[in-house]
Every structure is written in C-alpha cells, then in structure tokens.
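ok trying again, last paste got cut off:
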Amino acid sequence: MFDVSFEDVIPPAFLYSFLTLIVAYHVFASLSSTVKQRSWILTTISSGAMSLSSLPLFLHYVISRGDLSATRSSLWTEGTARFFQAYLVADLLMGTIYYRSKVNLLTGWIHHSVYIFIVEYTCRMGWSHLFVLCAVMEVPTFLLAIASLDPRFRSDLVFALSFFATRIVLHILLCVSMVVGRHNITNDSFGPGVLMACIFPLHAFWFYGSLKGFVKRATAAKPQPVKRGSVTAAPSLSGFSSLRARSWTLPRRRGSLRQAVRAWDRLEIRKAAGRFGDVQRRLRASFPAAREQVYAYVGIERSPSGELQRTGDVKTESSL
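nice, full thing came through this time. structure:
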C-alpha cells in the first residue's frame, strides 16, 4: 500500500554513522576518568570529522571569492550531513544514559533537536553541500572539545578568535552569499538564507557569553593590590584572616618601636638626665653647712645611721 523502503526511513549513512559513534563512545569512555570528559567524546569526534569534511568546499568558496553556483550536492556531502545527524541523536541517547547532568536544555535538547530537522530539510531539498560548507564553523567546537578532554590544549584566545572568524564573520558572509546568489544556488529559494539568519543570534549570544567568561576568569586570577596600612582578609576563613592580620600588624609595631628609639636617642634625654643628677649631687656636696642649718631650722636632724628624723612629736616623712 505504501511504497516506502527502509532506506527512505533510515538512510544507510545515518545508520552506519550512528552505530559507529555508539561503539566509539564505549571504547573511549573506558579511557576517560570524569563525566565531563565522557560527555565530550562524541562532540570531539563529530566536530573533528565535520571540520575536515568542510575544508574542500571552504577552500573552493575562498578561491571563487564567495561564488557558490559551481558547487552541488553529492553522495559524499549527503553522507557527511547524515553523519552529523547521527551524532546529534547519539549524543542525546548517550547523554540520557551516561551523562545526563551535562546535557542541558538549550545546548542539548533544543539545539540537537532543531539541527536534526535542519539536516533532514537540507538533504531533502538537495542543499547538503551548503550544510557541509557551513560545517567549517565546527572548528571552534573541536578546539573546545579537545580542551575539555585535556586542559593542556586549552587556549581562550585561540578559541575566541576561531569562533569570531567562523561563527560571526564567515556566518555573515555565507548568509549574504546565499541570499544574493539564490537564483543559481537554491532556485530563488530564501530557505538557506533564512536559516542562517535565524541561527546567527544564537552564535552571537554564545560569543558574548564566552567573552564574559574570559573577562571574569581573568579578573579573578589577577592578584588584588593591598593598600598600605590596610589588612585584607578572606571573609570565609576566620583563622587564616587573623593570621594574616597579625603577620601585617607585628612588623608595623616593630617599625614604630624602632622609630621611637631613634627619636629618643636623637633627643639625648638619657644623657641629659644623667648630667642633671651629677649637678644635683655636686650642689649638695658644695653646701653641707647650709644644708644642716636648713635641717635644724625645720626641725630635722640626722640619726647615727644617716637617716633624717624630725625632732619632737613629728614622724619621719621624707628627705631631700
């Protein structure tokens, strides 16, 4: 009744790619130590394969100065597009089973679901070569993926430059080329141009978010200068904060003490006090008779032991 074959429902390129990706995931998952690494295995394989597959069409686009009229779809371009479609399904399936926490709503379910239908639409319309050409935008995804597998390959600058060059600048150029040359490319259809225009805000949003992340990490990594005379303490570590405060306060106290000692020495107060004592002793020795007369006048006499005592009913109080 219905003349529909199995190949029409599930294209062989999609089926073989899907099975290959499932096997590849389980092989490389055993070599990964974290959930994050396992979540990037399929993305690394797909983005690397799509980037390489797009190079011939991209070079032709550059050499022809943006002319897309000479390129046409083929079994190779359709098979490449089906491979990407199989990756989208495999990533959702493996993510649901093995790394569900890493599959979020926007970049996971919504993004993958939309692109599954975009690939199907372009293949049925005979525009698979345009889709494969746009796959050169997977270069920054590949750089991000290998950096997630091994942090030694991480470079925020290289990623930002590649993202801006492919998903911002090249995206705009391809969109303009598809709209301007639609008569020779898509039989006057605005379909590819409209799709490119609808996808661009998402790329711009991702680029803006990545820039904000770079600035935030750079600001957090930069050491904060400590003002002279102030103590900076971490609010969540009270013990460590008090230790830092003491380590800054004690040197300042020692420095203040050293300055006070130097000022004391410059004033020579100790020498002056010593000279005043010598003068006082010499004055007392120079007027012994007068001193005794004063003692006798006020009613004080010296005992045999040398101590001064008042005569009469008066108790001893003090001495000169």
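cool. The chain has a mean pLDDT of 80. The chain has 14 helices and two strands.
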